[in-house]
């Protein structure tokens, strides 16, 4: 199965006919596919930092609203600060189910409760 077939099946892209004879198609991002763009840009920023080819990054991003080049970053939706692993705590969510991953998150409930009551600064 090809990548386009899998991405279409998974709802990331959709195939649209743009010419009937001979049949020709193009692919467009779905809403779910568009929401993947920040993830892909974050991966691109990582690659630019840690695996840039000689001569510099192969692509530069420009924010259409301000016209300036930018480096994608992940930030907190509450305060806007950039995020880094040492400053994030993962807690079991409402959809957590008993299992190996959830047990790791919940293995020290007292520490997790203390973290929620007194967040790191």
Search tags:
single chain; alpha+beta; two-stranded antiparallel sheet; two-stranded antiparallel ribbon; 14% strand; disordered C terminus
Low-confidence stretches: 114-121
* Helical residue percent band: 25-40%
Count of individual beta strands: 4
Rg from alpha-carbon coordinates: 21 Å
What is the makeup of the main sheet? Answer: 2 strands, antiparallel
Ends apart, CA distance between termini: 48 Å
Provide the spatial order of strands within the biggest beta sheet.
1-2
Tell me the number of helical segments per DSSP (H or I, 4 or more residues long): 4
Helix and strand content put the structural class at alpha+beta
How confident is the prediction overall: mean pLDDT?
A: 85
Q: Beta-strand percentage?
A: 5-15%
N-to-C order of helices and strands: HEEHEEHH
Tell me, what's the shape? extended
What can you tell me about this protein's structure?
With 121 residues, this protein is an alpha+beta fold. Helices cover 36% and strands 14% of the residues. It is built from four helices and four strands. The strands form two sheets. The protein has a two-stranded antiparallel sheet with strand order 1-2. The protein has a two-stranded antiparallel sheet with strand order 3-4. It is extended and about 55 Å long. The N and C termini lie far apart (48 Å). The C terminus is likely disordered.
